[in-house]
Amino acid sequence: MSDEQHTKDSGEQDLHDPLKFENEEPSTGDSPIPIFLLFLLAGLCFWGGVYLVQFGGESGFSKEAYTLDYDPHADVVIVQVSLFDRGAKVYQAQCAACHQGTGLGVAGVYPPLAASGWVTGHQESLARILINGLNGPIEVVGKSYNGNMPAFGPNGLNLKPLDIAGVLTYIRQEWGNEASEFTEATMNSYMDQYASRATPWTAEEVVLDLGPEPVADASVAVEAGAPVPEAAH
Ligand code: HEC
Protein backbone atom coordinates (compact mmCIF):
# COMPACT_ATOMS: atom_id res chain seq x y z
CA MET A 1 0.00 0.00 0.00
CA SER A 2 1.40 3.37 -0.95
CA ASP A 3 1.66 6.17 1.54
CA GLU A 4 -0.76 8.17 -0.45
CA GLN A 5 -3.31 5.32 -0.37
CA HIS A 6 -2.87 4.95 3.37
CA THR A 7 -3.64 8.58 4.21
CA LYS A 8 -6.71 8.46 2.00
CA ASP A 9 -8.07 5.34 3.77
CA SER A 10 -7.54 6.66 7.27
CA GLY A 11 -9.23 9.88 6.20
CA GLU A 12 -12.31 7.94 5.17
CA GLN A 13 -12.14 5.95 8.35
CA ASP A 14 -12.22 9.15 10.36
CA LEU A 15 -15.33 10.24 8.54
CA HIS A 16 -17.23 6.96 8.97
CA ASP A 17 -16.46 6.33 12.62
CA PRO A 18 -18.85 8.90 14.11
CA LEU A 19 -21.62 7.87 11.70
CA LYS A 20 -21.54 4.29 12.96
CA PHE A 21 -22.84 5.35 16.37
CA GLU A 22 -25.57 7.60 15.17
CA ASN A 23 -28.28 5.09 14.39
CA GLU A 24 -28.60 2.49 17.08
CA GLU A 25 -30.06 -0.83 16.12
CA PRO A 26 -33.80 -0.89 16.90
CA SER A 27 -34.46 -2.97 20.00
CA THR A 28 -37.58 -4.67 21.38
CA GLY A 29 -38.78 -4.53 24.99
CA ASP A 30 -40.81 -2.26 27.28
CA SER A 31 -39.94 1.32 27.78
CA PRO A 32 -41.45 2.93 30.91
CA ILE A 33 -44.23 5.60 30.62
CA PRO A 34 -42.60 8.96 31.24
CA ILE A 35 -43.26 9.92 34.86
CA PHE A 36 -44.63 13.35 33.97
CA LEU A 37 -47.44 11.70 31.98
CA LEU A 38 -48.49 9.76 35.06
CA PHE A 39 -48.62 12.97 37.06
CA LEU A 40 -50.59 14.67 34.32
CA LEU A 41 -53.15 11.83 34.26
CA ALA A 42 -53.49 11.84 38.04
CA GLY A 43 -53.99 15.61 37.93
CA LEU A 44 -56.70 15.33 35.25
CA CYS A 45 -58.58 12.65 37.21
CA PHE A 46 -58.51 14.84 40.30
CA TRP A 47 -59.77 17.87 38.39
CA GLY A 48 -62.57 15.77 36.86
CA GLY A 49 -63.66 14.64 40.32
CA VAL A 50 -63.67 18.18 41.66
CA TYR A 51 -65.68 19.35 38.63
CA LEU A 52 -68.35 16.66 39.09
CA VAL A 53 -68.71 17.47 42.78
CA GLN A 54 -69.06 21.18 42.01
CA PHE A 55 -71.44 21.01 39.07
CA GLY A 56 -73.11 17.59 39.33
CA GLY A 57 -75.98 18.94 41.43
CA GLU A 58 -76.67 18.71 45.14
CA SER A 59 -76.67 15.30 46.79
CA GLY A 60 -75.47 13.14 43.93
CA PHE A 61 -76.11 13.70 40.27
CA SER A 62 -79.30 15.71 40.46
CA LYS A 63 -81.31 16.22 37.28
CA GLU A 64 -81.80 19.81 38.47
CA ALA A 65 -78.37 20.50 36.99
CA TYR A 66 -80.02 20.40 33.55
CA THR A 67 -82.83 22.89 34.19
CA LEU A 68 -82.50 26.39 32.78
CA ASP A 69 -82.37 28.31 36.05
CA TYR A 70 -80.30 25.90 38.11
CA ASP A 71 -77.42 27.51 39.94
CA PRO A 72 -75.05 24.91 41.43
CA HIS A 73 -73.80 27.35 44.06
CA ALA A 74 -77.16 28.57 45.36
CA ASP A 75 -77.98 26.87 48.68
CA VAL A 76 -81.75 27.01 48.74
CA VAL A 77 -82.64 30.11 46.78
CA ILE A 78 -83.52 29.42 43.16
CA VAL A 79 -82.36 32.29 41.01
CA GLN A 80 -85.31 33.87 39.24
CA VAL A 81 -84.75 34.30 35.54
CA SER A 82 -87.09 36.87 33.95
CA LEU A 83 -89.73 35.51 31.58
CA PHE A 84 -88.05 37.40 28.73
CA ASP A 85 -84.57 35.96 29.42
CA ARG A 86 -85.95 32.46 29.86
CA GLY A 87 -87.88 32.91 26.62
CA ALA A 88 -84.75 34.05 24.76
CA LYS A 89 -83.07 30.72 25.59
CA VAL A 90 -86.14 28.67 24.71
CA TYR A 91 -86.37 30.59 21.43
CA GLN A 92 -82.78 29.79 20.44
CA ALA A 93 -83.30 26.11 21.26
CA GLN A 94 -86.81 25.56 19.83
CA CYS A 95 -87.74 28.19 17.26
CA ALA A 96 -84.68 29.84 15.74
CA ALA A 97 -83.98 26.92 13.37
CA CYS A 98 -87.12 27.88 11.44
CA HIS A 99 -88.00 31.48 12.35
CA GLN A 100 -84.29 32.51 12.57
CA GLY A 101 -82.48 34.45 15.29
CA THR A 102 -83.53 37.67 13.57
CA GLY A 103 -87.23 36.72 13.82
CA LEU A 104 -87.46 37.31 10.07
CA GLY A 105 -88.08 33.69 9.09
CA VAL A 106 -87.11 32.29 5.69
CA ALA A 107 -88.78 33.83 2.64
CA GLY A 108 -91.62 31.67 1.36
CA VAL A 109 -91.05 28.87 3.92
CA TYR A 110 -91.03 30.08 7.54
CA PRO A 111 -93.02 33.23 8.29
CA PRO A 112 -91.50 36.13 10.25
CA LEU A 113 -92.35 36.76 13.91
CA ALA A 114 -90.98 40.32 13.82
CA ALA A 115 -93.83 42.75 13.08
CA SER A 116 -96.32 39.86 12.83
CA GLY A 117 -99.85 40.65 13.99
CA TRP A 118 -100.22 36.98 15.00
CA VAL A 119 -97.44 37.49 17.55
CA THR A 120 -98.55 40.81 19.02
CA GLY A 121 -102.30 40.08 18.72
CA HIS A 122 -104.71 38.17 20.96
CA GLN A 123 -102.88 35.95 23.46
CA GLU A 124 -105.39 33.15 23.04
CA SER A 125 -104.68 32.70 19.31
CA LEU A 126 -100.99 32.71 20.02
CA ALA A 127 -101.37 30.16 22.81
CA ARG A 128 -103.42 27.90 20.51
CA ILE A 129 -100.74 28.04 17.78
CA LEU A 130 -98.03 27.05 20.26
CA ILE A 131 -99.96 24.35 22.12
CA ASN A 132 -101.44 22.54 19.11
CA GLY A 133 -99.47 23.73 16.08
CA LEU A 134 -100.70 25.36 12.88
CA ASN A 135 -101.00 24.30 9.26
CA GLY A 136 -102.55 25.36 5.98
CA PRO A 137 -102.42 28.72 4.24
CA ILE A 138 -101.70 31.80 6.35
CA GLU A 139 -100.81 35.41 5.53
CA VAL A 140 -98.08 37.01 7.63
CA VAL A 141 -96.83 40.59 7.12
CA GLY A 142 -98.42 40.70 3.66
CA LYS A 143 -96.96 37.40 2.37
CA SER A 144 -98.56 33.95 2.01
CA TYR A 145 -97.22 30.78 3.60
CA ASN A 146 -98.47 27.23 3.66
CA GLY A 147 -96.49 24.97 5.95
CA ASN A 148 -96.56 23.12 9.25
CA MET A 149 -95.79 24.69 12.57
CA PRO A 150 -95.09 21.94 15.16
CA ALA A 151 -97.13 21.69 18.39
CA PHE A 152 -95.32 22.47 21.63
CA GLY A 153 -98.08 21.30 24.02
CA PRO A 154 -98.36 17.85 25.65
CA ASN A 155 -99.36 16.27 22.32
CA GLY A 156 -96.25 17.68 20.67
CA LEU A 157 -92.79 18.69 21.84
CA ASN A 158 -94.18 19.07 25.38
CA LEU A 159 -92.59 22.26 26.69
CA LYS A 160 -93.43 23.38 30.25
CA PRO A 161 -96.14 26.10 30.41
CA LEU A 162 -93.55 28.39 32.00
CA ASP A 163 -91.20 27.91 29.02
CA ILE A 164 -93.99 28.60 26.51
CA ALA A 165 -95.01 31.71 28.48
CA GLY A 166 -91.35 32.77 28.38
CA VAL A 167 -90.90 32.28 24.65
CA LEU A 168 -94.17 34.10 23.92
CA THR A 169 -93.11 37.01 26.13
CA TYR A 170 -89.82 37.06 24.27
CA ILE A 171 -91.29 37.11 20.74
CA ARG A 172 -93.86 39.76 21.78
CA GLN A 173 -91.09 42.07 23.02
CA GLU A 174 -88.08 41.39 20.76
CA TRP A 175 -87.18 42.78 17.28
CA GLY A 176 -89.18 45.97 17.90
CA ASN A 177 -92.38 44.06 18.81
CA GLU A 178 -94.17 45.79 21.69
CA ALA A 179 -96.88 43.69 23.28
CA SER A 180 -97.76 42.66 26.82
CA GLU A 181 -95.93 40.01 28.80
CA PHE A 182 -97.41 36.49 28.55
CA THR A 183 -97.66 35.21 32.12
CA GLU A 184 -97.35 31.64 33.32
CA ALA A 185 -100.83 31.87 34.88
CA THR A 186 -102.34 32.84 31.53
CA MET A 187 -100.50 29.98 29.83
CA ASN A 188 -101.70 27.51 32.46
CA SER A 189 -105.31 28.44 31.84
CA TYR A 190 -104.94 28.02 28.06
CA MET A 191 -103.15 24.72 28.65
CA ASP A 192 -106.16 23.48 30.61
CA GLN A 193 -108.42 24.38 27.68
CA TYR A 194 -106.35 23.13 24.76
CA ALA A 195 -103.86 20.49 25.95
CA SER A 196 -106.15 17.60 25.00
CA ARG A 197 -106.72 18.83 21.43
CA ALA A 198 -104.85 16.54 19.02
CA THR A 199 -105.09 18.45 15.72
CA PRO A 200 -103.26 21.61 14.64
CA TRP A 201 -105.20 24.83 13.99
CA THR A 202 -105.74 26.53 10.67
CA ALA A 203 -105.34 30.29 10.32
CA GLU A 204 -109.13 30.77 9.94
CA GLU A 205 -109.99 28.67 12.99
CA VAL A 206 -107.39 30.02 15.35
CA VAL A 207 -109.02 33.47 15.55
CA LEU A 208 -112.58 32.19 16.24
CA ASP A 209 -114.40 32.22 19.62
CA LEU A 210 -111.69 34.01 21.56
CA GLY A 211 -112.27 34.81 25.22
CA PRO A 212 -111.50 38.23 26.74
CA GLU A 213 -107.87 39.32 26.32
CA PRO A 214 -106.00 38.74 29.61
CA VAL A 215 -105.34 41.96 31.51
CA ALA A 216 -102.06 43.49 30.38
CA ASP A 217 -99.49 43.87 33.12
CA ALA A 218 -99.17 47.20 34.93
CA SER A 219 -95.83 48.31 33.49
CA VAL A 220 -97.08 47.97 29.92
CA ALA A 221 -100.27 49.89 30.79
CA VAL A 222 -98.17 52.77 32.16
CA GLU A 223 -96.04 52.80 29.04
CA ALA A 224 -99.11 52.84 26.81
CA GLY A 225 -100.46 55.88 28.70
CA ALA A 226 -97.17 57.79 28.59
CA PRO A 227 -96.90 60.74 26.19
CA VAL A 228 -95.72 59.72 22.74
CA PRO A 229 -92.25 61.22 22.11
CA GLU A 230 -92.05 63.43 19.03
CA ALA A 231 -90.34 61.92 16.01
CA ALA A 232 -86.79 63.16 15.46
CA HIS A 233 -86.42 65.56 12.55
C1 HEC B 1 -90.09 23.27 12.01
C2 HEC B 1 -90.14 24.70 11.81
C3 HEC B 1 -90.78 25.54 12.89
C4 HEC B 1 -90.45 25.61 14.22
C5 HEC B 1 -89.38 24.82 14.96
C6 HEC B 1 -91.28 26.64 14.78
N1 HEC B 1 -92.12 27.13 13.84
FE1 HEC B 1 -93.49 28.61 14.11
N2 HEC B 1 -94.17 28.34 12.20
C7 HEC B 1 -93.60 27.47 11.28
C8 HEC B 1 -94.40 27.50 10.06
C9 HEC B 1 -94.12 26.71 8.79
C10 HEC B 1 -95.45 28.39 10.29
C11 HEC B 1 -96.60 28.71 9.32
C12 HEC B 1 -97.63 27.60 9.38
C13 HEC B 1 -98.66 27.66 8.28
O1 HEC B 1 -98.25 27.89 7.14
O2 HEC B 1 -99.85 27.47 8.56
C14 HEC B 1 -95.26 28.93 11.64
C15 HEC B 1 -96.08 29.90 12.22
C16 HEC B 1 -95.83 30.49 13.44
C17 HEC B 1 -96.58 31.59 14.00
C18 HEC B 1 -97.77 32.31 13.33
C19 HEC B 1 -97.33 33.07 12.11
C20 HEC B 1 -96.31 34.16 12.38
O3 HEC B 1 -95.23 34.09 11.74
O4 HEC B 1 -96.52 35.07 13.18
C21 HEC B 1 -96.06 31.86 15.23
C22 HEC B 1 -96.50 32.93 16.20
C23 HEC B 1 -94.96 30.92 15.44
N3 HEC B 1 -94.85 30.10 14.33
C24 HEC B 1 -94.18 30.88 16.57
C25 HEC B 1 -93.20 29.90 16.83
C26 HEC B 1 -92.50 29.77 18.08
C27 HEC B 1 -92.62 30.70 19.26
C28 HEC B 1 -91.69 28.67 17.96
C29 HEC B 1 -90.77 28.04 18.99
C30 HEC B 1 -91.36 27.70 20.26
C31 HEC B 1 -91.87 28.13 16.62
N4 HEC B 1 -92.80 28.91 15.97
C32 HEC B 1 -91.23 27.03 16.11
C33 HEC B 1 -92.50 26.70 11.46
C34 HEC B 1 -91.85 26.48 12.67
What is the helical fraction, as a range of percent? 40-55%
- Separation of the first and last Cα atoms: 109 Å
Q: Low-confidence segments, ≥5 residues, pLDDT <50?
A: 218-226
Oligomer: single chain
Task: Assign the CATH class of the largest domain.
Answer: Mainly Alpha
Reading the helices and strands in chain order gives HHHHHHEEHHH
Structural class: mainly alpha
Side by side, the strands of the main sheet go 1-2
CATH topology of the largest domain: Cytochrome Bc1 Complex, Chain D, domain 2
- Indicate the radius of gyration in whole angstroms: 34 Å
Task: State the CATH superfamily name of the largest domain.
Answer: Cytochrome c-like domain
In the CATH hierarchy, the architecture of the largest domain is: Orthogonal Bundle
Biggest sheet details: 2 strands, antiparallel
Strand content: 5-15%
Each distinct ligand: heme C
Tally of discrete structural domains? 2
Count of individual beta strands: 2
Described by the principal axes of the CA atoms, the overall outline is elongated
Mean pLDDT rating: 85
Structure description:
By secondary structure, the protein is mainly alpha-helical. The chain folds into two domains: 38-80, no CATH class; 83-210, Cytochrome c-like domain (Cytochrome Bc1 Complex, Chain D, domain 2, Orthogonal Bundle). 43% of the residues lie in helices and 6% in strands. The protein has nine helices and two strands; from the N terminus they run ααααααββααα. It has a two-stranded antiparallel ribbon. Helix 3 (83-94) crosses helix 7, helix 6 (123-132) crosses helix 8 and helix 7 (161-173) crosses helix 8 (184-194). It is elongated and about 110 Å long. Bound molecules: heme C. Heme C (HEC) is lined by residues 94-95, 97-99, 110-113, 116, 118-119, 126, 129-130, 134-136, 138, 140, 145-150, 152, 167, 171.
